[in-house]
From TrEMBL, chain B:
<feature type="transmembrane region" description="Helical">
    <location>
        <begin position="189"/>
        <end position="207"/>
    </location>
</feature>
<feature type="transmembrane region" description="Helical">
    <location>
        <begin position="371"/>
        <end position="390"/>
    </location>
</feature>
<feature type="transmembrane region" description="Helical">
    <location>
        <begin position="396"/>
        <end position="416"/>
    </location>
</feature>
<feature type="transmembrane region" description="Helical">
    <location>
        <begin position="423"/>
        <end position="443"/>
    </location>
</feature>
<feature type="transmembrane region" description="Helical">
    <location>
        <begin position="36"/>
        <end position="54"/>
    </location>
</feature>
<feature type="transmembrane region" description="Helical">
    <location>
        <begin position="74"/>
        <end position="92"/>
    </location>
</feature>
<dbReference type="GO" id="GO:0006814">
    <property type="term" value="P:sodium ion transport"/>
</dbReference>
<dbReference type="InterPro" id="IPR038377">
    <property type="entry name" value="Na/Glc_symporter_sf"/>
</dbReference>
<dbReference type="GO" id="GO:0005886">
    <property type="term" value="C:plasma membrane"/>
</dbReference>
<protein>
    <recommendedName>
        <fullName>Sodium:pantothenate symporter</fullName>
    </recommendedName>
</protein>
<feature type="transmembrane region" description="Helical">
    <location>
        <begin position="237"/>
        <end position="254"/>
    </location>
</feature>
<dbReference type="GO" id="GO:0015293">
    <property type="term" value="F:symporter activity"/>
</dbReference>
<feature type="transmembrane region" description="Helical">
    <location>
        <begin position="158"/>
        <end position="177"/>
    </location>
</feature>
<feature type="transmembrane region" description="Helical">
    <location>
        <begin position="449"/>
        <end position="469"/>
    </location>
</feature>
<keyword id="KW-0915">Sodium</keyword>
<feature type="transmembrane region" description="Helical">
    <location>
        <begin position="6"/>
        <end position="24"/>
    </location>
</feature>
<comment type="similarity">
    <text>Belongs to the sodium:solute symporter (SSF) (TC 2.A.21) family.</text>
</comment>
């Protein structure tokens, strides 16, 4: 079974998983902004970037990955029309 | 950089056969064929046309300038893209089947279909079309401005800003009118490939020139120390509100909506949108790195206009060696490609809305009037683009602020079936009046929140109140269709 057909089967069977992943995307977008940290805090550095920048970029990469998974699923709301 | 000029000329020449081939492939003079390529776009073409259309001159030139100014804080631009990519889940799965079933060609066709029995459908469609057209005109204006800025820099003023704007406007007008969406999409494939190749060249050079990611980050920390610490609350609010504004507005771009309509099938569309998110993330990261790289490169140079940061960086890169000169020229071509691919799509959508969404009734056969409208629109916007006294980022913000007022009409009404056109119309008027008042008073944000979002809140509040009122006091839908 190819990876894409495995993903399709997984998503077809589990609507809750799709909804959970959609919510996870929005959660990641919210936590990418460091509102939960005191402004002015001196950060640690990863790859030359402050930790809050590295965390934001990681969140955005994860959002795009989840987004890709969700779009790769077979559209079950309507049959392909053409 | 004469090599850049030669490459640009060669690029224009490549567009000619593509355009003529698209014209030959055209099956009729119907709106569906001209504006949607007869709903025939497959994965390869659709993916690249979405990519090339989504990434404009504003993105590459404007965002890199802002990153140069704001250092680490401008990581929000990647967040803006992630939010935009996620927002398509609100719209595409529901709108796509309807668009195929009812043969939508323009955004106004959704309004015609959704509110077909409502009294105010005509007024709502016209007002929405005017808002979208103003947004598109702004977008086209920004593309021409970006093209003029770049041409002036790369030729050291030999080609003036004015001449650059005029040449680009003419080329776009010609191939847009001749080949319609088919020509636009086919040239977008070429333009998208150029953009991707240019981005790869650029990222390799940046990493090499800066001594790696860590060294690049360290230099930004030294030269923009104020952007290192966790940002203050006003910056965080700006960050969140920019992501929200992008997510709620870009999803209703008319040119994107028309690509949703033009896909050959739903599965192809889904794959294209998923892949668009990935390539968009890559391109945004490149833009971010360009801005950070420019901070150290121009640490001792006065930069009077931040929109010229990227062209200046390319000039410096090109002067370092012959090979780098070629690579820089490809990147430059990529930027011009981004500008052209967005401008052509915007012009096509703009003309389609002026032709079919603003008049009471639209004739879907014959394209003579469409050509006349295209010429008039391009002349008017080109004349406006000769004004240089506004930054590209400000143009992007104004565009998104107006566009987001159309979000309820396209997305909320897609999910909530009981809403009627009167409520959407009242909300839209409220939002637009609020926004225009804020712009005329020079208010860009309130409590850190973008005025476009506050105008949207007012828009949604009025929509909700009128909906409640209508559901309590009004009679059921009229039976007569009011298209």
């Amino acid at each position: 079974m190819s990876l894409s057909s495995f993903i399709q089967r997984l998503f077809m069977k589990n609507k809750t998983l799709r909804t959970a992943l959609q919510l996870l995307m929005f959660f990641l977008l919210i936590i990418s902004v460091p509102w939960y940290r005191p402004p002015g805090t001196e950060p640690k550095f990863y790859l030359g970037m402050p930790d809050w920048v590295a965390l934001a970029l990681t969140c955005y990469a994860l959002v795009i990955f989840i987004n890709l998974l969700l779009w790769l699923r077979k559209d079950e709301q309507g049959k392909p029309t053409r | 950089m004469s090599l850049s000029l030669w490459l640009t000329l060669a690029y224009f020449l490549v567009l000619i056969p593509l355009c003529l081939r698209a014209r030959a492939a055209s099956q009729s003079d119907e709106a569906e064929d001209h504006y949607l390529a007869n709903r025939s776009l497959g994965f390869f073409v659709l993916f690249f046309t979405l990519y090339a259309t989504a990434f404009s001159g504003n993105t590459l030139v404007g965002y890199s300038g802002q990153t140069y100014l704001h250092g680490f804080h401008w990581v929000l631009t990647v967040g803006l893209w992630a939010a935009i990519a996620a927002s398509f889940h609100f719209l595409v799965p529901k709108l796509r089947p309807l668009s195929v079933q009812h043969k939508f060609v323009t955004p106004g066709d959704w309004i015609r279909f959704r509110f077909q029995k409502d009294r105010t459908v005509l007024l709502l469609r016209k007002l929405l079309a005017i808002c979208l057209c103003l947004t598109m005109a702004n977008f086209l204006f920004a593309q021409l401005k970006a093209a003029g800025e770049i041409m002036e820099v790369i030729t050291d003023g030999a080609i003036s800003y004015t001449l650059g704007v005029l040449v680009f406007a003419l080329v776009i007008l010609i191939y847009d009118s001749i080949g319609g969406l088919r020509a636009v999409a086919w040239t977008d494939v070429f333009q998208g490939l150029t953009m991707f190749t240019g981005s790869v060249f650029l990222i390799v050079w940046i990493v090499e020139n800066s001594g790696g990611f860590t060294a690049l980050g360290n230099s930004v920390s030294q030269l923009r120390p104020e952007t290192v610490a966790v940002p203050d609350s006003s910056m965080q609010i700006r960050w969140l509100s920019t992501m929200l504004l992008g997510a709620l507005s870009v999803v209703v771009y008319p040119q994107t909506l028309q690509r949703v309509f033009a896909s050959s099938n739903t599965s192809t569309l889904n794959k294209s949108i998923g892949a668009l998110g990935v390539i968009g993330l890559f391109t945004n990261l490149v833009v971010l790195l360009v801005g950070w790289c420019a901070i150290s490169l121009f640490a001792h140079t006065e930069v009077s206009n931040v929109d010229q940061v990227l062209p200046m960086l390319l000039e410096q890169w090109a002067s370092s060696s012959l090979l780098n000169g070629f690579a820089a020229s490809v990147v430059l071509l990529a930027i011009l490609a981004a500008i052209m691919s967005t401008a052509d799509s915007v012009l096509l959508s703009l003309v389609s809305m002026l032709r079919h969404d603003i008049p009471d009734h639209s004739q879907r056969q014959g394209l003579r009037q469409d050509y006349v409208i295209a010429v008039l629109v391009m002349v008017a916007i080109t004349l406006c683009a000769l004004n240089r006294n506004i930054t590209l980022w400000r143009l992007i913000v104004i565009k998104l602020e107006l566009l987001v007022q159309c979000f309820p009409a396209f997305v909320i009404t897609l999910h909530l079936q009981k809403i009627r056109s009167g409520a959407v119309l009242c909300g839209l008027i409220t939002g637009v009046v609020f926004l225009l008042t804020a712009i005329s008073l020079g208010i860009k944000n309130l409590w850190g929140v973008n005025t476009g979002l506050i105008a949207l809140a007012a828009n949604l509040t009025v929509l909700a109140l009128v909906s409640v009122f209508q559901s309590k006091f009004s009679t059921p839908h009229h039976s007569k269709h009011r298209l």
